[in-house]
Amino acid sequence: MKLRDLPLFVHVAGLLFISTLVTQALSIVLLFYSPPPVSELYAVPDIVASLRAPSTEAAKHRLKVSSNTAPPYEQSEDRRARVIGERIAWALSLPSYAIRVTLGWRPGPPWLSLSIAPKASEPPVSASSRSQRLVDVSDLVVAPFQISVRQPDGTWLTAEPSDDGFLIAWRQNIVKWLVASTVLVIGIGYFFARRLTAPLRSFAEAAERLGRDPRAATLAIEGSAEVGVAAQAFNDMKERLRLYVENRTQMIGAIAHDLYTPLQRLAFRLEAAPSDLRTKASADIAEMEAMLNATMAFVRDATGTERCRLELTSIVESVVDNMAETGANVEMEPSPSILIQADAVAVRNLVSNLVVNAVKYGVSATARVFTENSFAVVEVDDNGPGLPIEELARVFEPFYRVERSRSRETGGVGLGLSIVRSIALAHGGNVDLINLPGGGLRARATLPL
């Protein structure tokens, strides 16, 4: 079994597993191979200078000095903090309990900080003992820290490293790794997603082709197991629809064809009927024959499959010229050359029906051709009274006529617009009627480019 034939569940589970594996692998690489963040070092003499002259020395030594009514954190015991506090107290000629040193300070909740400082109740350490103890420590303080000095008025002067912003060097490296890993995982996910959704796109394209032509090619059965089952079901449905449409269309054509024989016999027998009766019956027979001819034309146009590359504008111009030669008031606006893939006879019938309807019911016709999005558009305007809103959709129904007399002198049999819509839908387009603001009706047919 090929990988693509596995169930869709396996594909999705594999995508999640591989994405998680890649993410964890990149995190391990970041953890073990990225350099640790480099701590900033501050000299104790620089801190002392900044506490003595905050306005001039603090910025020079990258320190921030502020005055507070109380130190930020509670003090706690730590030998290094005690030694640093004693050295600063000695340099400032202050008792050690007036100095509070907090190492490992970070902005945030108190439980995330390590606060270390000498107790205020401890007695001062002698100078000789202080000097003996200071030789055991470095003259440097590692950031972050807070060093506070109590002032005579009871406030605290606090020195701490200045804020260099959120994205300091080591954080920038982490962000770069995260961005790189995210791009890599997105690329892998996109590749898998394309593979998973490709059969769905094929389904959509096959459904669109089926809407245009029931004889369209079958859908290739490939993809996951579930997609293969769905593709087979789709192909079976398409075949059943094709047979259903063809059988119904052939049945209608056969019925229309077989009705010609009894009509001809009826016309022959009417020869012996009285003159007035023969005249009326002959008119009815002629109308029935016209309906049968229209039905047969409808069947032929609905089943036409001879698709080829056509120049649509030339077809419209030919229909307009032929109508103008008969004395009809019809013209065509200048239009660009547009190529489509369609059945030539069917498209010509579509255009002819639109132009004939415009001349018959609207006195004159003006045609134009242009493109809109991915469709070729044929518009035919007339100068007639238009149609009521409720009739704009119903006129496309077979044998429906706005003129109720059913007289062939005032209209056809009601299949012209049905044929137009059938042809447009068979090619993947559509047709609509629009009442123009200044009067008249616009027939608008669309065909895919």
From TrEMBL:
Its EC number is 2.7.13.3. PROSITE patterns: HAMP, HIS_KIN. The keyword Mitochondrion does not apply. Residues 194-246 form the HAMP domain. One of its GO terms (cellular component) is plasma membrane. One of its GO terms (molecular function) is phosphorelay sensor kinase activity. It is found in: Cell inner membrane. It catalyses: ATP + protein L-histidine = ADP + protein N-phospho-L-histidine. Its main location: membrane. InterPro entries: 2C_sensor_his_kinase, HAMP_dom, HATPase_C_sf, HATPase_dom, His_kinase_dom, HisK_dim/P_sf, Sig_transdc_His_kin-like_C. Keywords: ATP-binding, Cell inner membrane, Cell membrane, Kinase, Membrane, Nucleotide-binding, Phosphoprotein, Transferase, Transmembrane, Transmembrane helix, Two-component regulatory system. The chain crosses the membrane at residues 12-33, 174-193. It is a multi-pass membrane protein. Residues 254-449 form the Histidine kinase domain. This is histidine kinase. It comes from Nitrospirillum amazonense. The lineage of its organism: Bacteria, Pseudomonadati, Pseudomonadota, Alphaproteobacteria, Rhodospirillales.
